[in-house]
Amino acid sequence: MTATIRDAALPFTGGALTALLSPATRLLGLGEPTHGVEAFPELRNELFRHLVAHEGYRSIAVESDCLAALTVDAYVGDGTGTLDEALDRGFSHDFGAHPANRELLRWMRAWNARRPASERLRFYGCDGPLEITGAASPRAALTSLHDYLAAHLDPECDRARLDRLLGPDERWTRPAAMMDPGQSVGRSPEASELRLVADDLSALLAWQAPRLTAATSADAFWHAELHARTATGLLRYHAGMAHTAPTRIDTLLSVRDAMMADNLDAVVRREARRGPTLAFAHNRHLQRDESRMEFGGGSVRWWSAGALVSARLGEQYAFVASTFGSRGADVPHPDTLEGVLSSLPEARAVIDPGRLAAGLDRKLTPRVPADHTYFALDPTTTDQTEAIVFVKDVSEGDA
């Protein structure tokens, strides 16, 4: 290891990381290389506490169902419900079971309990109501949007028609539809008509924004926009599930990350006067370069939420990737990025990508991990990150 590479690293602290960011940053994306390893959400918690205390951040958005997250935000905001209820009902992907998420909510609630409403921390989900096994029914999003509008306006579609087109939720949530387009109702006549209805309701919401905001509140209108985005995104995702084209999975991943980008963009706009936002999701969802992965014997490609939001926000978006060295018997080869970083003395380090690239004396090869759920960093794209957070060793118990 050259002295230059050693100079590219500092022990991980919130201050060491933020020193590498532009002061214009409004959305900081912190990626994790895999789910289920507690070292990364624990690191996220530590960073968020620093950002709140020293950098003026007042919100966090995580890779979880954006509608379910309203339950979490109500708990951390004013103590609605209990911690266990927020963890059980407020997260998708079973993330509520992770100890670090329990600790995050407990800390946010304690912070908010001592402060006025205007200074309280907010919790957001940036993902759609999606799981690996499929997508939710659009019912909750569509009916919430319709009911908000109907309380003040006269939308063309009445509730009876909406219920008829939606039908039973079981039609929308069949797990088999994820891999079998024939099991999906996403391109049925009813679903196609619902897409037009959702578009009409969303347009009506936008056209009447001044009236509706005055009649309700800015927060109520923002939540109506959230339901509008989610309804149209879900219907688009269901249509993608029913598609038979070879690029079907590429489309689904693109739709999902577009929903995430729209949610993050909306969060940044809502939080503009309060402070920046920390986003926490998989590296593949937050990176600037094109995302790729192997699926079903082929390669799929899509633009991540980070790439999309970066195109909109420019220097106001910052991306910090994280990765790790050893995980039990899975030890990185010395010629990989993770192998080089494993030679650093720090257990957790913040890496300056520019200094790292200047200190390398050989071309690095991509790591091939033993665990297919872990995505190693591409050593050719480190210039598209503001920083890299490296954890030298994660225990098998974190898996």
TrEMBL record:
Organism this protein belongs to: Streptomyces lunalinharesii
Pfam families the UniProt entry points to: Erythro_esteras
Protein name: Erythromycin esterase family protein
